[in-house]
Amino acid sequence: MHASAQxxxxxxxxxxxxxxxxxxxxxxxxxxxxxxxxxxxxRGQLASxxxxxxxxDVGAGSGVITGALAEMFRTTIALEPNRDLRRELERNCxxxxxxxxxxxxxxxxxxxxxxxxxxxxxxxxxxxxRLPILRRLLGWVRxxxxxxxxxxxxxxxxxxxxxxFGGSPEDVSELRDSLRREAEINFESTLTTRxxxxxxxxxxxxxxxxxxxLSYGIPDHLEMPTLDELRTLLDENFRQPGGGYRISCxxxxxxxxxx
Length: 259
Hints:
Blueprint (H helix, E strand, L loop, with lengths): L2 H6 L10 H13 L2 H13 L7 E5 L5 H7 L4 E5 L3 H10 L4 E3 L13 E7 L7 H13 L1 E12 L4 H8 L7 H9 L6 E8 L2 E4 L2 H15 L9 H11 L7 E4 L2 E8 L1
Parallel strand pairs: 1-2, 1-4, 2-3, 4-5
Antiparallel strand pairs: 5-9, 6-9, 7-8
């Protein structure tokens, strides 16, 4: 393809379970400190918990965070419906009980865990299902325990990048507020934002990361941007003097404790 035609071509919208998404997501993971920052913050919170018997990681992915926190608990249960990710999870967390079901289909009873983690999962859940899913997650928490839901902060450069192409960033505080309006559910909550960054070494890496962010962040009725549009936005806003691109992708940690 001629260079000018290539730059006018639109990015492909990637399906979550496709090999292309897996490859692009791998580029995102190697380019960000989100997991490292999340592990450090979560370990700090867990250190003060009075009981650390059972840890339930919902949407555990490849198990990097799961494994880093599992050593703080006697028992670890991990949910991961994606087959490829589940294989990595089983390798990384050989002592965890790994379930293949989704949140809605998991054969788990109420109040089974001292700590429930749901990290960067709600993007992939239909909006109509999010409140029932959040209720179910909170129902798995034992008295004195906590649920932590992690999403990208809507007040970061990555979220502004998404808005530039018509996307609407998720806001975990909206989930909290929807749950709070349900009178029969009583809980305490805190919301903490921690700084994280994406450091893409090249435009090719930045393009792959953009595909991950935009594929789930732009409504289906909107077109993905062209390579030229993407390059213009990245160069004008995120290009670093020494090369590469740096974008803040801060994380919001919503802690819910049932009363």
